């Protein structure tokens, strides 16, 4: 199935059913593309349903969907509010600590020579 077929918009009910059955047999790559697409665009009912069914039995796509949403949320939070990525100024060394490290490195370098 090509990307064009995956993003095919359903017009009437019969076209939607055709699209739905086609998506049920789509590859994981196509479902991953739809999952990514769903984060920024609205999908047809057939596409949404096909993804829901696919992730029920496909662990890889279920994980991809979870990770994509987690990544989106992490980016939304931004580094300023994320505890795992503190601001650089909060982790910078004090001048005394920087001097102590520099002195220690100089002492080790002179010992090696
Ligand atoms: Zn899959």
Distance between the termini: 66 Å
Strand content: under 5%
Instruction: Estimate the global geometry from the Cα principal axes.
Output: rod-shaped
Bound molecules: zinc ion
How much helix is in the residues? over 70%
Largest sheet: none
Sequence of secondary-structure elements: HHHHHHH
Contiguous uncertain segments of 5+ residues: 1-5, 7-11
Radius of gyration: 25 Å
**Average pLDDT:** 79
Number of helices: 7
Number of strands: 0
* Domain tally: 1
**Category by helix and strand content:** mainly alpha
Structure commentary:
The chain is an all-alpha fold. It has one domain. The protein contains seven helices and no strands. Helix 4 crosses helix 5. Zinc ion binds near residues 28, 31, 58, 60 and 61. Zinc ion binds next to helix 3 and helix 5.
Please give a handful of descriptors for the protein shown:
113 residues; mainly alpha; 75% helix; 0% strand; disordered N terminus; binds zinc ion
How would you summarize the topology of this molecule?
Layout: H1 3-6, H2 13-24, H3 28-38, H4 45-57, H5 59-81, H6 88-91, H7 95-112
Helix pairs in contact: 2-4, 3-4, 3-5, 4-5
The structure holds zinc ion.
Put the structure in a nutshell.
75% of the residues lie in helices and 0% in strands. By secondary structure, it is an all-alpha fold. Helix 4 packs across helix 5.
